[in-house]
Amino acid sequence: xxxxxVIIVPxxxxxxxxxxxxxxxxxxxxxxxxxxxxxxxxxxxKAKKAGVFVASHCANLGYGAAxxxxxxxxxxxxxxxxxxxxxxxxxxxxxxxxSLLGPLxxxxxxxxxxxxxxxxxxxxxxxxxxxxxxxxxxxxxxxxGQKITDPTSGMLALGRKVARVFAGQLFPLDFPDADVxxxxxxxxxxxxxxxxxxxxxxxxxxxxxxxxxxxxxxAKMSVSMVHFALRRDLKEQRxxxxxxx
Length: 245
Hints:
Strand content: 5-15%
Number of helices: 9
CATH architecture: Alpha-Beta Complex
Order of helices and strands: EHEHEHEHEHEHHEHH
CATH superfamily: Spore Coat Polysaccharide Biosynthesis Protein SpsA, Chain A
Largest sheet: 7 strands, mixed
Shape: globular
CATH class: Alpha Beta
Strand order of the largest sheet: 3-2-1-4-6-5-7
Radius of gyration: 17 Å
Number of strands: 7
Number of domains: 1
Distance between the termini: 28 Å
Structural class: alpha/beta
């Protein structure tokens, strides 16, 4: 049982699967925060019934905002040194939580990405998402000078210092992915990937479904990556945040 990490689970209309996700997750970790991002179904009620900490938004604010709320609550109400982000749709396998925490516990990294592309056979992704992931992988690797195979993974592990960054104003509120890696690298944080396998989501739909949302995501992510790459004050921002923590 993991006792040194808080698991943060953003959830929007996950009532059909949240009970199964939490039942499996609680076999591996005792401290779980579910952020109900303005769900219109019974996601919050089922999460509370499962006995986990639940924070709720009155309206749907987006994936990044849900993560930010989760980190803010985790820093305020929990003392554990580490955090892990975990999807609510049963896609993530909690048996990999320990391997994600390994580099943090050994002080080899400050931020660990669960990479679907290091586990051997490439995951079965739609062609558009596979191409997009590859493009952002190349761009991120070039910008930070380090090979990153899965910049859009949602299974992440980090310490309290990085969590404070995510709870602050620099953290994107809609689609935090590759741009966050550029930001952390510019701040001087150490990034590492660990191999994980992911399962098909148990409910249809995706934050990147449709036509307009993927177009917005690509445009926004590209601009945000360049923005963070060009900033020269990020190390100073890190020093300021760590000086008041």
